[in-house]
Amino acid sequence: MDLELTEICTCENKEAHMEAVIELPSFDSKLGSFPFLEKKPFELHIVNRENKHLLVEGETDVMIAIPCDRCLKEVPVRIHLIFDKKFPLKETEETKEEVQEADYMKGFHLDVDRLVYDEILVNWPMKVLCKDDCKGICRKCGADLNLQDCNCGEDELDPRMAAIQDIFNKFKEV
Ligand SMILES: [Zn+2]
Ligand SMILES: [Zn+2]
Predict the structure, then answer these.
(1) What's the rounded Cα separation, in Å, for the pair 174 and 171?
(2) Which ligand number lies closest to the CA of residue 151?
(3) Closest ligand to Cα 152
């Protein structure tokens, strides 16, 4: 969603509460495409501070389906997003860099989806498990070891080994 902020940006000390809607159907990154299970409209508080800065504040929760690191079953993960951004309204030498960083602010338009995307990326969970002691999938026969035992023997990892395995898998992905 694109929020039109011309009036606030051009009117000194103006404040507004605006409802923002996430239009993104999923969070797509180099790790894959993760559908939103829940997202709701949320309120942004926007202030023009003496025509120098625009402050954008608000918070919301989203629920995203992320596969378990061990067994790949989808786990609903709640991510809390807090927005507390400051954009320069005038471009000066000092603010030039800030302007470039803020690619979700184009002219007097705020790209809400872009803002949400960046915030999810920053808050992305390091580890996702369907349960703490998830036994994962047998790498020989593909059996879900939470549901059944298999006879492949040595590949059955105890949870401590599985944790180490997770670390190795993470390194491989990078
Ligand atoms: Zn699992
Ligand atoms: Zn097996």
Answers:
(1) 5
(2) 2
(3) 2
Is-contact 112 22, C-beta < 8 A? yes
Q: How far is the CA of 141 from the centre of ligand 1 (A)?
A: 16
Centroid of ligand 1 to alpha carbon of 68 (angstroms): 5
CA of 134 to the centre of ligand 2 (A): 15
Query: Which ligand ends up closest to the CA of 139?
Result: 2
Q: Which tens digit of pLDDT belongs to each residue from 100-154?
A: 556 788 878 999 999 999 999 999 999 999 999 999 999 889 999 999 998 886 5
Range of the domain at 156: 131-174
Domain-ending residue, one of 103, 122, 141: 122
Q: Tell me: do 61 and 141 sit in the same domain.
A: no
Whether residues 108 and 168 fall in one domain: no
Residues 115 and 152 in one domain: no
| pTM passes above 0.85 | no
